[in-house]
Amino acid sequence: MTWRAALERQRSLLDFALLALWRRRGKNLSLVLVYGLTVFAIASVVLLAGALRAEAAAVLAGGPDVVVQQLSAGRPALVAAEAVARLGAIRGVSRAAGRRWAAYADPVSHATFTVLAPEGFEGRPGEVELGAGAAAAMRWKPGEKVGLLGEDGRWHFLEVRRLLGEETALVSTDLVLLAGEDFERLFALPPDRFTDVALTVRNPRELTTVARAAVGALPGGRAVTRPEMARTYEALFDWRSGLASVVLLGAVLTFALVAWDKAAGLPADERRELGVLKAIGWETGDVLAAKLWEGVVISVAAFLLGVLAAYLQLFLAPAPLLAPVLRGWSVLSPPLRLAPSVSPLELATLFFLTVVPYTLATVVPVWRAASTDPDAVMRS
Amino acid sequence: MTLLEAREVHRVYHQGRPDEHEAVAGVSLAVEAGALTVLSGPSGSGKTSLLTLLGAMARPTSGRIFLRERELTSLPERFLTEVRRRTFGFVFQQPNLVRGLSARQNVMLPALPLGLDHAALGRRADALLEQLSVGHRARARSDWLSGGEAQRVAIARALVNDPEILVADEPTANLDSALSRQFMAIAADLKAAGKTLLLASHDPIVTDSPAVDRRVAMRDGRLEGP
């Protein structure tokens, strides 16, 4: 057979397979839906785990190498500016920066935000930048004024400059960024006092040494290195994706059921149809090829449907099914918006784990039915 | 000229089991090219079994089948299928059309795995349906066809690969007298067009038709008479 004829043969068999699917459209549509739902559940977990890892990586990428806190009777206390200078003088530290941040319990929305005065705040005094969750919780929009209750018992009104980007939405969602002056006014903080100190270290292998030296330079201090922070994030995110894996288990079981049902046998009318095809001159291989196309069409349709639905619910809709799992820890209950992060390798793995076993499961009973003698039709 | 020949063929079902049954018991038969041969006999006489053996649909338990000088019995399954679809067209007792497909799609079915040009195949199916006077029903779903229409679509399907031999098992069993006569008229036309026809039937409209060249009577798996 020439390649052109082989191509034409496959086209004809695919045509036949599509017609066969259309003829049993009720059954096949429900099959695609159940199968698609399974893929949806599995894909949700795979995409979620990927997105969480991306979030963690994004958070840590911009983070300091060592964070030093002052403790007073075991409680975090403020760090004096001269202590920052002392930490900066430690060998191996290229930079020491005092940071100002505080947890702020909003009396109106009853949510807790993280208020932070970053070093390079792009706005002017009197302006704030909000994480998506904080903005939604207070129904703030850019251009509007927000009221924050200060240490002095008065309301401080600041203009919303912009909402923060979505690349680290899950962790930046509760952020309120403002200028240093506003932070000092709001929390009645002297200009030479900081919440903690961020150190930049030239050589990553010196992190532990620097941390030890920092504790020595700041009596009663505590130092946390980047790998320690990474472990904390990892534990948090692993716990979340672990919980979601329970959903995965259910999905895999459903999928096994569907595949088993297919492998168990063919309905009588399909078996009869295979007999007719054999009797009118189809080879076992022709019948198998046509049925293989049916399996491919069903499973690819279900795969695309499931993955697309999972993508939409995770990244475009506020993850209605997985959000409760993810935000149970937070008082803020932010609308969850994960930044899209799709790994082609994971998608390919998902494809092979769903499409291939299903397609094979459909072919086995067909092969059994198709290898019977064609004269069975004559005798029926 | 002999086109198809059976030599001492036996066909035993459920061999070695308590319900063992010999449907064909040592039959030798030569089918002439271009002739219309009818296997007749009561139900259970072995007509259908002999027909499936001659049509390369099943292998004999013993004995040999020849197509011209080529022995079919020893061919591997793949080659046998190839011979079957190039040489034989089958019409069954029931039309056995695939439900949900149109008449035209049913006619095209046997040729789909051959990798022929789809459009040309469609035209060929249309021409055959037209030739058998069911062209106007080409787009109708097979389950909406009347018994006579379904039968003619089944004949068109048997002819789509332009086989040398048309094999039909009780082709008039589900047809009324008028449609049965119509079938025999079609059979006569096909014979006139150079086809070899091999029918199994106990319907007098078939067996007594003037188009029949040879009648072979069967009983208990054996040939009767000369």
Q: Number of helical runs of chain B?
A: 7
Name the strands of the widest sheet of chain B in spatial order.
6-7-8-3-9-10
How are helices and strands ordered from N to C of chain B? Answer: EEEHEEHEHHHEHEHEE
Q: Which spans of chain A have pLDDT < 50 for at least 5 consecutive residues?
A: 328-335
What is the structural class of chain B?
alpha/beta
Shape of chain A: elongated
Distance between the termini of chain A: 34 Å
Order of helices and strands of chain A: HHEEEHEEEHEEHEHEEHEHHHHHH
The percentage helix of chain A is 55-70%
Per CATH, which architecture of chain B? 3-Layer(aba) Sandwich
Largest interface: A-B, 35 and 34 residues
Largest sheet of chain B: 6 strands, mixed
Rough outline of chain B: globular
Oligomeric state as shown: heterodimer
Q: How would you describe this structure to a colleague?
A:
The complex is a heterodimer of chains A (380) and B (226). Chain A is 57% helix and 17% strand. In chain A, the strands form 2 sheets. In chain A, strands 1, 2, 4, 5, 6, 7, 8, 9, 11 and 12 form a 10-stranded mixed beta sheet that branches. Chain A has a two-stranded antiparallel ribbon with strand order 3-10. Chain A has helices spanning 3-23, 25-61, 81-88, 132-138, 169-172, 180-187, 207-217, 226-264, 268-279, 284-316, 323-327, 344-370, 375-379, and strands spanning 66-72, 75-77, 79-80, 93-105, 112-117, 127-130, 145-149, 155-163, 175-178, 193-194, 196-201, 221-225. Chain A has 380 residues and is an alpha+beta fold. Chain A has 13 helices and 12 strands. Chain B has a single domain (2-223), classed as P-loop containing nucleotide triphosphate hydrolases (Rossmann fold). Helix content of chain B is 32%, strand content 26%. Chain B has 7 helices and 10 strands. Chain B has helices at 47-54, 77-87, 103-108, 118-131, 147-159, 177-192, 204-207, and strands spanning 2-13, 21-32, 36-40, 62-67, 70-71, 88-91, 165-169, 196-200, 214-219, 222-223. The mean pLDDT of chain B is 91. The chains are: A alpha+beta (380), B alpha/beta (226). Chains A and B meet through helix 1, helix 9, helix 10 and helix 13 of A and helix 1 and helix 2 of B.
